[in-house]
Amino acid sequence: MAPIYRRAGARILDNALVAVFGFALVLPITVGAIGLDSPGSKAGDEGGIWNWPIIFTLFCVLSLLPFIYEAVQLSMWGRTLGKRILHIGVVQARPAGDPVTTTQAIWRAGITHIGYQLGVFFFLAIAALAWSYAAYGMLLVWAGTLMAYLWAIWDQPLHQALHDRFAGTLVIDERVEYEEDSEYSGYEG
């Protein structure tokens, strides 16, 4: 199984790539559409910066774009760009080692990016509508999401995070097989 630090590194690389392109594409359009900087803007009357267009934009950038990014790449190649750079991949848990199916890729990406983020945006929406202290509920959701990822540390024997368990997938270290092959390539037994 792939080490946790390389899994985390791949996730950070993938999220950074999606965030850079997502915010570069979506945020200027949203800001231009609602006119936060223009005189007479209704931003102050509609919840300040946390109004519905901004919440929807954040949901798209933080959930839908990464979902599409990951689901497409996992279903086609069994790895994302970040996983490719760090030499890890996603395979089926049973039968072990088979390529992930499109359904598994969609489930895994959906749980990871949409499922975990729905709680955050639920509390953000409550904070924008009624109760500003509800934004602190996002901290609880993020703590729960972190625990879902860290589940892979103590899960035995497969080291699956919660999204891997639900999707029936494993994250493997692709270099282990290569190292074993190269170790025995000169052996003439």
Task: Write a structural description.
This protein is mainly α. The radius of gyration is 20 Å and the shape is globular. The protein has a two-stranded antiparallel ribbon. The protein has seven helices and two strands. Helix 4 runs antiparallel to helix 5.
Query: Stretches where pLDDT falls below 50 for ≥5 residues?
Result: 178-189
Q: How would you sum up the major sheet?
A: 2 strands, antiparallel
How large a portion of the residues is in β-strands, by DSSP E?
5-15%
Shape: globular
The ordered string of helix (H) and strand (E) elements is: HHHEHHHEH
Structural class: mainly alpha
Distance from first to last alpha carbon: 28 Å
Widest β-sheet, arrangement of strands: 1-2
Which whole number gives the mean pLDDT?
Answer: 80
Helix content: 55-70%
- Number of separate helices: 7
| Secondary structure tally: strands | 2
The radius of gyration computed from the alpha-carbon positions, rounded to a whole number of angstroms, is: 20 Å
- What oligomeric state do these chains adopt? single chain
